[in-house]
Amino acid sequence: MSTATIDKVQEAEEKEIQRIFNLHMQNKQEVRNTTYADRRAKIKKLLKVYLKYRPQIREACYKDFKKHPIEVDLTEIYSVVHEAKHTLNHLHKWMKPQKVSTPLALFGSSSKILYQSKGTVLIISPWNFPFTLTFEPLISAIAAGNTVIIKPSEITSNSASLMKKIIEEVFDEKEVAYFEGGVETSTNLLKLPFNHIFFTGSPGVGKIVMAAAAKNLTSVTLELGGKSPTIIDETANIDMAAKRTSWSKFLNNGQICIAPDHIFVHESKKDEYIASVKKYIKKFFSDDASKESSYGRIVNQMHHQRISKYLEDAIEKGGKIEAGGKLDKTQNYISPTIITNLSEDSDLLQEEIFGPVMPIIAYKDIDEVIEKINSKETPLALYIYSKSKKNINYVLNNTSAGGSCVNHNAIHYFNNNLPFGGSNNSGIGKAKGIFGFQAFSNARGVYQQHIPNALELLLPPYNDFKQKLIDLTIKYF
Ligand code: NAD
Predict the structure, then answer these.
(1) Of 166, 176, 286, 473, whose CB has the highest number of CB atoms within 10 Å?
(2) Which residue has the CA at smallest separation from atom 8 of ligand 1?
(3) Shared-domain flag, residues 183 and 59
(4) What is the CATH number of the domain that holds 324?
């Protein structure tokens, strides 16, 4: 079987982790002092080597979860290249001290914000987009002038080994270091007083990371997951909604943090929508997706079993398979599946699915849907398909989510001008573009006095004149 296995995880030695960490702490001031030209050169070098390894990246992703090379190009190559280019184009501006105005009461002074590197940072990444979710934050961390230690996921082992090769070809270990390994390596890294931790993974592990960070008061960016709903209202273009939700649900075999987890469709459009999704499943993956190279696999047996159990649970509770539902555990295969008639307490409506199973729920009134969404954890993404401006604004204004697309799914990830991240259970902090740069920076406020200001008139001993002066200041400034 070619899909990833987690049988033989090699953990990093604690002594070696400590050695590298000490090296980074000693080197962080030098890296903090690097210029725009230095950082630009590093990102350019990384980009060049990354593109040199494009064939090997495609191969590693195929070995890990039978991901089609074109899908790798879109979600592991283009994404990283675009983030690097966007950073190269904007870094000069982001690094510049930002002048800010000063209140009149503080006349005779000037103020600015310096974006200084946090120092020595840790990036822990997941397996579902192993390259993108490691290299994108790495680009932000380098742009901000940090030394970086990386711990990738042990689950996609082919990708993890290749990333080590790329990192070691580009960087000196005192600047960017890489530790393969699993929970033990992660736990040992998390004991150290990093200046920032950028974690991408599940909310459960996110809580472990935040608790460990709290011991050192280390700041965190947590890019987590959850259940991202899609709403298709009665005015929506159903064929378009079916095409786009089918693409984003079955891309990467549904193993996407911002996949449309479940679909709410207006009851008047339910049958039309189901028929259209079936049409697109056939168009994308023929009648038998197991034979199509465009269709990936679940990453390992554990996750295959997890999703299989969700399906069994749903069917036991009355769920109706409308399409697919075919499983082959020897291949970690689950066919593109549509399921309806779900009981509210079924695992498919309670847990993040992270697989190619699309629950469809019909609704009568948009307020029912909003109430349901708001009764759950804040999603990483929320999507709405509609032609009605009023409905779109109503949904956006009455729900909360890390990000949203209107009349599309997941595509907001590719716009580096938008902040990417969750809210509460789906994450803390934002990534990509300037938001990634700022996540890895300390915004240091600097106030400089040029000539004496009004405060000089308010120094002790206090008297009536000074009282009048402060009264006037409160009233007018
Ligand atoms: P995970 O939380 O199991 O693992 C993520 C990383 O944490 C891995 O490197 C792993 O080795 C490490 N880890 C696992 N258990 C640990 C522990 N007990 N202590 C310390 N470290 C530990 O997540 P995953 O299965 O790799 O990825 C899937 C999850 O990630 C989903 O919930 C998905 O929604 C989420 N995700 C979020 C984003 C985002 O950008 N918000 C992107 C991709 C995936």
Answers:
(1) 176
(2) 153
(3) yes
(4) 3.40.309.10
